[in-house]
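Hey, resending since the last one bounced:
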Amino acid sequence: MKRFLALTTALLLVACASAPPPPEWQSQSFAALKSYTAAYLRGNTRVAEVEFERAKAEIARTGRPDLMARIELLRCATQVASLVMDPCVAYHALAQDAAFAEQAYASFIAGRWDTLQAPHLPLHYRALVTQTQASMRQTAKPEQGANAQIPSKLLRIEDPLARLVAAGALIQREPLSNADIDLAVETASVQGWRRPLLAWLGVQLKRNQSLGNTGAAAAIQRRIDLAL
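The C-alpha cells again:
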C-alpha cells in the first residue's frame, strides 16, 4: 500500500523544488486523497465521501481514465483494510484502462492470488503472496485451534496501512492466525484508526468466543465499547 500510494503521488504530484509548480489538479487531488484516507480510517464517513468526490472531480478534468482507475482502487484498498469487502465496482468499470500493476493490485486486495504473479506487486507484498501460494499446494490445512501456534505472516510489513490491507486481503483466502489478528488490532489501535480497529476487534472477539476464552472476549468487548 505504501508503494501504491507513492506511485499515486508520483503521478499526481511530480514537481520538485527546481521545477515549475505542478498543475493545480495534481496538488488538489493529492491533498483530497490524503484527507479522504485519514477521514475514512478515523470513521468519519461524511468527510471521507466529500474528499473523495473532490479528488475525482480534479482528476476528471484530465480526461484520464487510468488515473481515475487508480484512485478508485486506492479507495477499495482502504476499505479492505477495514474489512469492507464490497466489490470494487467503480474500479472494474475502468479496469480496461488501468495499468498492469494496478490490475495485479486489484487481484491482490480481492484475495485472488491463485495465478497472481508476485513480482508485479509492491515489494512488501511479494513474500506474503509467494508464501501463501506455496502453502496452497500443500494438502494439509491447519485446524483453527492450531492457528494460535502459527507465527505472524504480516509482521514483516512495516507500513501500518499496508499491513492492514494485506490482512484484509489474506483473510479472504484463509483464517488468520491469532498472531496476525492481534497484530491487525494493535496496528489500528496504535494509529488511532477507529474504523479498522472496530472491524478487527470484531474478528478478535469472535475468535476468542469460538475458543471459549470468556475472559479475553469480555476484555475485547470493553475495548469495542470504548471505541464506539
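Residues 2-14+22-124+153-227 form one domain.

Sorry for the duplicate.
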